[in-house]
Amino acid sequence: MTSLIKKITALTLAGACLVSVTACSSQSTTTSGGGSTTAPATTEPPATFNEQEQSQINEIEVEGAEKLENPLVTTLLAGWDLNPEKGKPKSVELEMFENVYGGKIENINCTFDERFSRLATLVASDDAPDMFSAGDLDVFPKGVYTNIFQPMDDIVEYDSDLWAPMKSINDKFVFNDGHYVAAVSADCGVVMIYNRKRVEENNLDDPADLLEEGKWDWDSLYSMMVKFCDNDEENGALDGWWFESAISLTTGVPYIDVVDGTIVQNLDNALIEKAQNYMLKLKTEKLPVDKAANGWQVNPQAVKAGKTLFYPVGIWALYTSNFNEDYGEYEDIMFVPMPKCPYVDDYYLPAAITGFSLCAGAKNPEGVGAYLKCAMLARDDETAKEISKKQLFEDYHWNQDMYDMQQKVVEMTAEHPMFEFYTAVSAKLNDLINNPMKETFNNGVSWTQTKESMKAAVQGEIDKVNADLEKIKKQ
């Protein structure tokens, strides 16, 4: 396991290029009711690499590659595109796919909320796209019992040397001996973004230094939050929609897990209760931003203004060229992983993936396999990594400290990656858990009260879906 995990850390910005587009599907506007919407993106003509980079990419060897009989791969995406925006270079893997296999990606854009209903309609009408993004971590096991995805083992050699770095991740998405996700890279799922200048102005320790010293945990975060809010009672130490689930995952226990193809709930786990009590403490002491008082609107720009200390969010928020509008001058922006849970020995962190699922009725599974092979080759190729790193610095204004931290957090995440499955079982289970598990942090309601009010319904939904999965096992 350890050797495989270390290989995962070879993920650099070849993978991050993929993450940057995959994660865009997560850039949705969350409402107080927990819904989200994403407007479709517009695809502009692609840019190209410079001559030297093009030559280097063409030298990447793709063993056994032949031109595809069917070069077109279609994919259903929620308002983003695998093809680049105007003025931006292609990802290395897309360049390889086009040059080596003669392939082409055609995206079918839709809103975030309609992804699954749109896919179900297309599958039922025998007009299914070929692949579907798994980057939102909500395809498995939902896509199994709804029959909208199919196993990928015929097109992805999961036990090969090429795919070995991602084996431990991909094996989390197995049902009935079939893999339903092909993850090509892993990244840090949620990070704590802050402004170094504002931290210094408030005489606080830099969280990056605390991390380096092994002191970045729930307790040090709490101490920083208290001091920041004491400096100005109008300050709020935390904002955003991502903290509650992410801090809970640092315990190493998800609310909902999938174990050997069976869905289980961990609502009674003592570590989850500790996470909930920690959030209740923060709320009782009025440390987080009061989202209710703000009409359930989040305000990342308060970090730039010095009124909010941390903005926990998916790292995709830093894979845009204008994140300075929210968090401050580029040179002042920094991030750290979620703080360590002091009640466990290991450092567990929420993980993100870049990957795809194969749609039921896909017309070109071979093309999907070829594209994914290019993605795996690109993620570990030194030339590709250097090109992608250059893109981060030049196109997204990253600095060396940010890059070094991203590498460190990816490595840390890969040691004990955590996935939360309540979003991936059913819409009903998501509704039963997603907002209620935030009640301590947002409204000061005890976890005991919340848990008891929803536990029976949660187990009922789990039993129903497990029964559907069991039927598939027996087919």
Short structural summary:
The protein has helices spanning 2-8, 13-22, 51-58, 92-101, 115-124, 142-145, 167-170, 196-201, 207-212, 218-231, 243-249, 270-284, 301-305, 324-327, 365-380, 382-396, 400-415, 427-433, 439-443, 447-474; strands spanning 29-30, 36-37, 72-77, 104-109, 131-133, 149-150, 174-175, 178-179, 182-188, 190-195, 236-238, 256-259, 262-265, 308-314, 333-337, 349-359, 417-418. With 475 residues, the protein is an alpha/beta fold.
Please tell me about this protein's structure.
The chain is an alpha/beta fold and 475 residues long. It has two domains: 2-188 and 351-418, D-Maltodextrin-Binding Protein, domain 2, CATH 3.40.190; 190-349 and 422-469, D-Maltodextrin-Binding Protein, domain 2 (3-Layer(aba) Sandwich), CATH 3.40.190.10. Helix content is 41%, strand content 16%. It contains 20 helices and 17 strands. It has helices at residues 2-8, 13-22, 51-58, 92-101, 115-124, 142-145, 167-170, 196-201, 207-212, 218-231, 243-249, 270-284, 301-305, 324-327, 365-380, 382-396, 400-415, 427-433, 439-443, 447-474; strands at residues 29-30, 36-37, 72-77, 104-109, 131-133, 149-150, 174-175, 178-179, 182-188, 190-195, 236-238, 256-259, 262-265, 308-314, 333-337, 349-359, 417-418. The strands form five sheets. Strands 3, 4, 5, 6, 9, 16 and 17 form a seven-stranded mixed β-sheet that branches. Strands 11-14-10-15 form a four-stranded mixed β-sheet. It has a two-stranded antiparallel sheet with strand order 1-2. Helix 2 packs across helix 16 and helix 18 packs antiparallel against helix 20. The protein is globular and about 65 Å long. The two termini are 33 Å apart. The model is unreliable at 1-48 (pLDDT under 50).
